[in-house]
Predict the structure.
Amino acid sequence: MKTKIYFIVLCIFVLSSVFPLHAMMESEMLQILNQDKISLTVEQSIDIGLTYSRSYFASLMDVQTADAKYKETRTKLFPTLKFEGSYTRLSKIPPFEVNFELPGTEPMHFVISDSILNYYNFQLKLSQPIFTGFALENAVKASRMERLAAKEMNAKDKSQLIFDIKNAYWSLVKAMEFKKLLDENVTLVESHLNDVQRFYNQGLAKNNDVLKVQVQLSSIKVNQLEAKHRVRMAMMALNSLLGLPLEKEIEPASKLSGIDNLERDVKQEVEKAMLKRPELKAMTYNLEASKAAIKIARSGKYPQLGLEANYYMSNPNTRIMPTEKKFQDTWDISLGLSFNIWNWKSTTYQVYQADSQYRKTKALESQMKDMVTLEVQQNYFDLLQAKEKIDMSETNVTQAQENYRITNERFKAGLTPNSELLDAEVFLLQAKVSRTEAFIDYELARARLSKSTGEE
């Protein structure tokens, strides 16, 4: 428990230094951790999930990694300055001497260079690529496209997390509503049991009638226990997505919204998805990166030109004769040119590889567009179907309530057998459950359509 709270606090600190948090995040959310039971709307749940979710945190780190890689690649366009230093201990050798004599003179002895045993060298190296066959420029472009693709994939992860939170939230609402209906049904059947028991005591009902109601009540109570377990599991699933302790008790505060009127047809929804879906945007950037990779591979067919300048401070400096035991400075400037005359078509094969990767990415983009189109169409018609189910379920509840009212009155008047009232109670419960499921299924269908069209 403490470890999870520490992790959440760390996430707040890291994310607040990178992305501005919702005003609620900085003040109220830390207080939520200390509450045993919290009331959350679906919007608040989304805010919490985007702040505390470990999977989304990892996605944000992927964006930072891609951004750092892009900035690192850009540095290769600029000159670099490098310092090197070394010390070398040399073996002892005889000094460099010259002995000679002229006719009629005494022999002469000159020591040109003493034996130096310690060698010190300090070097500053300045390097600047001048022409790399457009490799560096295209490497920068590729990394920039990869950075943009990473941002779009982060947007995709955000959209997926928002949908998952909505799905978990409304699944919790659905489980709670189902349990609430069972609780109401238990009360209803218990009242029915009291009536039958009273009729039995008055000799107006059989013992078998009492047993039937008792069996139905026991069956409903078993379902009531299962519903309680489903509520607990749905709550744990939501807590997991939000990054909260699994045992945290959540009370959903959002109410099911009304039915929307779809002003656009399915074709317009598909067109919107093609413009907004982050996966498709990321694929576009990946295609541009693949094009740049082809140009990088082709750079091997061009000559490479570079400039290098060095400044030395050495003791002794071997360029200065005679060598002396003291630091002396020298410098040099070089212009280097290299060109692959023949490398057994290695560069050509690299171009083939990059071109094949581009064609593969292009095919994946086409496949992804087909999948997005199918997904949007399916979600659009699922939403229309969910809307129709709501209308039908409302009618069923109205009919079931009226059927129960009439049957209950006739039962109390002794005009209807016990079995018909039991059936009426079952029909009423089923109608209410179907209505709740229809409204929540509509909410989830709307969330799926929003996600598939690139909306949050």
In short: The longest helix spans residues 135-201.
